[in-house]
Specification:
Alpha-Beta Plaits; six-stranded parallel sheet; 3 domains; 435 residues; homodimer; Rossmann fold; alpha/beta
């Protein structure tokens, strides 16, 4: 029995979880598997501060220098868990050049440089496994790559960022402001001190990029993904949406359209009975729609130490058994040579919208607004208009039927210029069960 | 490039779907995969009636005799889709002896003879793949086998039968009786003319048996699974449970306990906010709980022509690439040699209960009943007692705290013997999010 020998680069939260699973005596997977997987060495810049906290076996290589791990000829799989682009990209490339397979959770690296890295891996006959990069333990990469291979994938959409889902859930359930909810998330460790990558939707954009390339068997520039975070969300919009039968979630959405790929991250209203509406707190869930399978959803903890470590170890098993090599050599989305496809500009998408105007309540206001919308081919499905005294500033809330975003943008420029409209109109996109 | 050559035995609904996916020109998977998979022949008893309806290519072998397919030396993978034990079991064994790999959706066969068939496959160095046997396209076998391999699986539970979920959903949403809902399901093609395998919970028992052996890396007798269907469900129990905050579903439940395996199929009350509560109609969903992953849920169409065909084709890809062979030789739950474990008698399980008594409303009735429950260590968490005139027959509904079923059974014998109790007391088990 050949033994797989693992080198771990990056001993943060997830790395520590991976070490724990691999160093258990015996590891849980060992009971289910005829294969030995041994952790040989760990590199981490701050290893000296960490090594006393973890009971490492004496024969484990412990180093501050990742080169010592990737140059070690005994090691055949490198787990890259330092995140970010530099030096992670160099580490992955050097390790591939040294003939080592890669297991990584690095979504930024794969979103920005996936095809380049896949090509290098192919050149050296090695594999890159990355189940942990999206939804941690939720087996969404395997589902898109293997389980749903008989399908033309139509759409991939879901909640792929736990931080923002925690914040929005707290705002919704406890009626607190964005700032209060974010602060609570930071105290609980669900948000970083600098939360921008999460709250601005960047992390979700990385993830939907990875999923889309796999699901749609294509390539495109990450920079073309439309990204809108949750920093501008006001409690009252959550409230009005709720009244209209919708729940607000930050969704990553990707759909194959006749003229290209619709791919975007934005706060989205979902009907209360949509399966994603009840995905709360730090949980993630991804819906995949295919021509044979119809609608599916995969749900679980999308982040955290042990769920992510679980996904890393499942990838290690896959590499150790030789399955990852076969997969990497056979499945075209992993070739690094996929056809580039056109990403639709956000103005070209078609969906329903929630609109909230701040207007002076005067006779004729509703007529002016609906007139402008009508001129731009936008029709209204429902309106909430609160009672108020004449000439008072009031919110006016509308749901539209399906409209093209470019038309909406042009209509809103005109509407925002009306004398009776006192603040920039807020709008949110809507996702129905089968749009 | 070696070409995989497929023989299909059984051209029912699912078989026709598989043929459609394989005979498409080009098949969808061919765009994503460097591998050719060719359907060479089809055997079906009624092939002569069917062959005119499907545009088969002229070089396809079409036969009423399955032996012609399993003896064909060109064919290297047999898809068994006739279902049931005979002659499916013989077909699988003969095909393995002839050196062919097996892909099957046959849950009865695997539940009753899984270990025996796995052993035969191991003997001939061949594999049996069966993703389609549980939840059709929902990749629950792959998740338990591969994605969650780093976990000690704690529990597997879910909605694994679409027919019963359709019936219960219709009863709940439209307030119709069991008979009316079943009739509607039969008209829509969701229930068989003889629905007993579904409505009596047998199909669900087959499926939870397969999942449990995989997830818990063990073996046990299928006959030891406790099975209770939905034929006795009354609309009023759905109503009272709803008032108490619960939704009724037929669940298949399997949990690793200190003293053995708890495994059962029974109508179950779930809190409204449980993710399984909103799984409606013919959809299925399976929750898997592990020590590293925590709670996960996989959701999708659990039956139907194309979802099941999608799972069959994903297995065919897996076999064709050589990954299934590696998996079958490496993953211990597929060895056919797993340790037999003790299945707990239903009297040993511990859960919360819903109880509905039909009592004559007299002073002291509640005291008699709660007294008997108390003597058997069962305490009450809530009661619904309807206003009524004295001496009238009224329903009395209770939710208990966690109790042992044996104690409940003994208490109910005493309670049912009380003069004031006029009908056999109904009870339903409850499943909370983390029990």
């Amino acid at each position: 029995m050949m033994i797989s020998k693992i080198g771990l680069v990056g001993l943060g939260t997830v790395g520590t979880g991976v070490a724990e699973l691999l160093l258990a005596n015996p590891p849980i997977f060992a009971k289910k598997l005829d294969k030995r997987i041994e952790l040989i060495g760990i590199a981490d810049r701050s290893i000296n501060k960490k090594k006393d906290k973890i009971p490492f076996p004496s024969n484990l290589i412990i180093t501050q220098d990742f080169n010592e791990i990737i140059n070690n000829p005994d090691i055949n799989i490198i787990v890259e868990l330092i995140g970010g682009i530099h030096p992670a990209k160099d580490i992955v490339i050097k390790a591939l050049e040294k003939g080592k397979d890669i297991v990584t959770a690095n979504k930024a690296l794969l979103a920005l440089h996936g095809s380049e890295l896949f090509k290098i891996a192919q050149k050296y006959g090695k594999s890159i496994s990355f189940e942990a990069s999206v939804g941690s333990c939720i087996p969404v990469i395997a589902a898109l790559r293997d389980s749903f291979i008989a399908n033309e994938i139509k759409g991939i959409y879901g909640i792929v960022n736990g931080t923002t889902n925690y914040v929005l859930t707290k705002m919704t359930q406890e009626e607190v402001t964005y700032d209060e909810a974010l602060k609570d998330a930071q105290i609980k460790g669900y948000a970083e001190n600098d939360p921008s990558t999460d709250v601005e939707g960047i992390d979700a954009a990385h993830k939907i990029t990875i999923l889309s390339r796999m699901g749609f068997n294509c390539d495109f520039n990450y920079e073309d993904v439309y990204v809108e975070g949750i920093t501008h969300i006001e409690l009252k919009d959550i409230y009005y949406a709720h009244e209209l039968g919708y729940t607000l979630k930050l969704l990553a959405i990707s759909k194959r359209r006749d003229n290209g790929l619709e791919i975007r991250v934005n706060p989205t209203l979902l009907p209360h009975d949509h399966p994603l509406s009840s995905v709360n707190g730090v949980f993630n869930a991804i819906c995949i729609r295919g021509n044979a399978i119809g609608e599916t959803m995969l749900y679980g903890q999308g982040a955290g130490q042990m769920p992510t470590a679980s996904a890393i170890v499942s990838d290690l098993v896959d590499v150790s058994l030789g399955r990852a090599k076969i997969t990497f050599q056979s499945i075209k989305p992993l070739s690094g040579n996929c056809k580039k496809i056109n990403v639709l500009d956000i103005s070209m998408i078609k969906t329903r919208y929630y609109l909230r105007y701040s207007v002076i309540d005067k006779p004729g206001v509703l007529a002016s607004i609906t007139g402008i919308l009508g001129n731009h081919n936008i029709s209204i499905s429902s309106v909430i208009q609160q009672d108020s005294r004449e000439n008072e500033l009031v919110p006016l809330v509308m749901m539209t039927h399906v409209a093209e975003e470019g038309n909406l943008q042009r209509a809103l420029i005109e509407i925002n210029n009306l004398d009776v409209v006192k603040e920039k109109t807020r709008f949110l996109r809507v996702e129905e069960a089968s749009s």
